[in-house]
Amino acid sequence: MKNKFIMALALLVSGTALAENGPQFTVLVRRDGRTTKPYYTKMEMPDLESNNSFDGKYFKIVKGKGKEAVSFDEKDEKFLLKAANVYYHLNKARDYWVNKVKSEHAAALPKITIRLDIFNQFDELGHFANDNRAPQYNNALSIPSGETPAWVPAEKQDKWEKEIWFRPMKSIPAKELAPSGPNPLTTSLLAMERPLINYTANSFNQTLMEHMFYPTYAARPLHEDVLRLVGTIAMTKAIIYASRYSDPLFMDKYYYLETAMIPEIVYHEYSHLVLSDHLQMSHSTPVNEGMADYFAAIMSDKRKVYAKVKGYSNAAPKDTQNKRPYSHWDESNRAATADFTLSVLWDVREVLGEEIGDKVVYAARTFLKTETATVSDSLLRSILKACDLQCESPRKDKLKLYETFAKKGF
Ligand SMILES: [Zn+2]
To answer: pTM value?
Structure first.
């Protein structure tokens, strides 16, 4: 009798403890299995330090340039959903890096400020660029820590740790995309269907693509060199193929991306912070973006990552098993948002197995630098070096890797 009472008491106590773990909020998660379909569900917010706002042990969610954490009583329901979604998935990403990968860098990261709906450009010397400098939409970025130099007036002095910024979503007519961002062509290509990107990227010079899709943007005349490079037959084929796809009825008329609502984008940005012990977050390259994509794909546990979400994203997904062979276009910083590097790294995982493959890819970063890393040279070399350290039988495994790289067209 007494034992039963103690058991009941223990249950009651543990039940209460569970409830005290944190309040629950609606977030977006993808269904299990092969589908990328999302659904909305209530999830607990872990490791909060505040009992009325998204201010936790590891992450603080703020609005724009603000300092205060987003309140649980936030009246804008969509904004509350974004805050909860980002907070939930960031803690999931941290848990993966700290407890699964055992990253010391992740464990040691100071509390990270997360900015939602921030449209300002990042300014290395001033944190936020002026409000009137071209506002940014439909993307996310991780920024390095920094501080304003001594000569900056006292009222503008600022000092910041590493942060993640999620830009507001804005529906942009596809035809206006070209001149808008730092990576005009790739960004706009993402709004189109994948086969077109693959086909065109494989076969043709980027200048030619610009001419076909954005004749006003590519103001320069088609240069002789381009014509020589491409060849007449190939060009005729391309124009026939591309004109079919550039038909306005075939393309999405608008492009939009609410980065704070896409779980894999949250994992991707957090991965940049963790990998920044070697891969500096100075700018986007095919190598540092591909590395962040790789770990985002592991966390999302899907073949296709960044898949569409009704009302929040109509961008084309990235395919971990993209079979496209290497082309010189894949080295261009403009190709940083494509999925080629991801598919190279995913092949490493397929060949070496998940456990060793993940260790090899993670260790490869120690031989890489954002400024100099190329896919065809430094990345492959780094993977082989990492295999020397991490593979069970490096000689045999490196032979397998050579074969895989050859199949990929290197
Ligand atoms: Zn990135």
So the answer is: 0.82
